[in-house]
Fold this sequence. Notes:
Layout: E1 4-6, E2 9-13, E3 19-24, E4 27-29, E5 32-35, E6 37-40, H1 49-64, E7 67-70, H2 73-81
Parallel strand pairs: 5-7
Antiparallel strand pairs: 1-2, 2-3, 3-6, 4-5
Amino acid sequence: xxxxxxxxxxxxxxxxxxxxxxxxxxxxxxxxxxxxxxxxxxxxxxxxxxxxxxxxxxxxxxxxxxxxxxxxxxxxxxxxxxxxxxxxxxx
Length: 91
């Protein structure tokens, strides 16, 4: 699956142009983004797509010296399960 990257948004579309996976992470301040929305279409559930989207945001944060405030429930759970990225979580 190929992700499309925009400022504060990473997503994927199907062949018809419908968004089938998406994560949004608006800038809170100069050092923090808020991971506030994760969406995966039912047709993709159980394939690890949501985790890949969150990891894309993690990679973005690491490359840009940002912290992440995981506001959506999926992202919060993901960070709880991936303690190796605890240093990226803004409190």
